[in-house]
Amino acid sequence: MFPAGNGGTIELLYTQTYAPTTLAPARDFWTLRYTTTLTNGSLVVCERSLSGSGAGPSVAAASQFVRADMLPSGYLIRPCEGGGSIIHIVDHLNLQAWSVPEVLRPLYESSKVVAQKITISALRYIRQIAQETSGEVVCSLGRQPAVLRTFSQRLIRGFNDAINGFNDDGWSILSSEGAEDVTIAINSSKNPTTSSNSLLGGVLCAKASMLLQNVPPAVLVRFLREHRSEWADFNIDAYAAASLKASTYGCTGIRATRFTGSQIIMPLGHTIEHEEMLEVIRLEGQPISHEDAFASRDIHLLQMCSGVDENAVGACSELIFAPIDEMFPDDSPLLPSGFRIIPLHSKPDVLNTHKTLDLTSSLEVAPTSGSAAENAESSSSRNTRSVLTIAFQFPLESNLHENVAAMARQYVRSVISSVQRVAIAISPSGLCPSVGPRLSAASPEALTLANWICQSYSCHVGSELLQVESASSDSVLKTLWHHQDAILCCSLKAVPVFIFANQAGLDMLETTLVALQDITLDKIFDDLGRKALFSEFAKIMQQGFGYLPGGICMSTMGRHISYEQAVVWKVFEAEENTMHCLAFSFVNWSFV
What we know:
There is one protein chain. By secondary structure, the protein is α+β, with helices and mostly antiparallel strands. Helices cover 28% and strands 30% of the residues. The strands form four sheets. The protein has a nine-stranded antiparallel sheet with strand order 10-11-12-18-17-16-15-14-13, sandwiched between helices. Strands 1, 2, 3, 4, 5, 7 and 8 form a seven-stranded mixed sheet that branches. Strands 19, 20, 21, 22, 23 and 24 form a six-stranded antiparallel sheet that branches.
């Protein structure tokens, strides 16, 4: 820092910023900042990049970054009569969009995205501090607003650390053979607890990014928050929670626990505009051993959720969580994991389509005509893309690197599969979603498939499969999902595999939506069941449906299941002669 005229100062700054995904490197800045106070009491801060390619304080650290340029930027704080102040902010950046994959360039060249990520976030933060200082913010469980804000910041920073994995912070990539869809990184110098646990050998992170199409980020993050059992393995949460306890036995202290699959959300606080929420999640567990009948096996997570407003332009949606002790003191160690979903295309400005980093040109747009706006809205909703980044951190025992790495890689792949299934279900009706590289664009979303199943049953069998009060797609899907009979659909490939099951179907097969598509039709029937199906198959294909006599089938866990009768029918796509799949309804099934 150097003194300047009129009481001002000049600073030479090297700044590193996080990359929002695993698909592009982070940015750094080498800038000159001038700060001064004007005669009217206003505070002025001006900043811009220095010319040249100086590496900054550490050449080794800068090697993981792409040097970005800050054009003349800064802020002006003017005092107001009667108290308070007015803040003006200008952010003018060149983030070198040429250096990232083309699909990600909107994140680096869109003025709306820059405004939402940097400028508007700064204004919201200032407003939040002002409200907290004035005592207008009230939080739960007796926590001070500043403490909860610190928890949120630590969750976000820990998640960003995991995604970026800077060498300077002790991270290194675990070598692997061939291309990996999940990246494994290890930080042996990081101690995830406040105790000197000799068994822990740092932290392992499994992370991945994938492209989503026609999936609203806000809707997806709300589903992930409210339906944790659809994608999470509570035993993995239990492993992380037990490892972080301040004890000497660490991971070996895990005891057999049965989780109910339910979660209780306890709000702690939220920001002024509710764009960010902080809460405690309790996962209910029950001890299996009678010796531990009175011991609590609940797991507690500190969770931050943001971006649930579908109308916010350019905002990313996040769900970040970390296991905590149920008392969670202010200095609780945090090992954050979670999801970040960033929209890649904002709603287009019909009257202002040129690209610029001048924020005012894209944030202050004149009203458009009704028809033009509606057409742009319709076109945008049918071609929306976003990038999902997943990062999960695990405490690492010093002698179990390979075991934990294999478990983490498999778990993240399982979570990705679950998210893909969820994305199909929540994709807007009438669209053919394309979710990442593993799903076919021809797969119907869940609401449409539910209607096809019921309409085809009525057409072939001559009676209604469901008794629904409303004919809406949501009502049909909900009733089908909770139907007492096990309803499953299988593909028409050479080796038929299951592509859908309601809750009773998943319970009968003792599987999940993630693993369902790995189950082939022939595996669930015994010899008599297979013979019955083969003998009726020609009739089913000719008249569209058939009945199988009662018999025995088998779950994925090897348990025998009896059923009174099975109805089989062909499922056709709406208003077409294209057969989509074969549906089964197992009536009055039970475990033997």
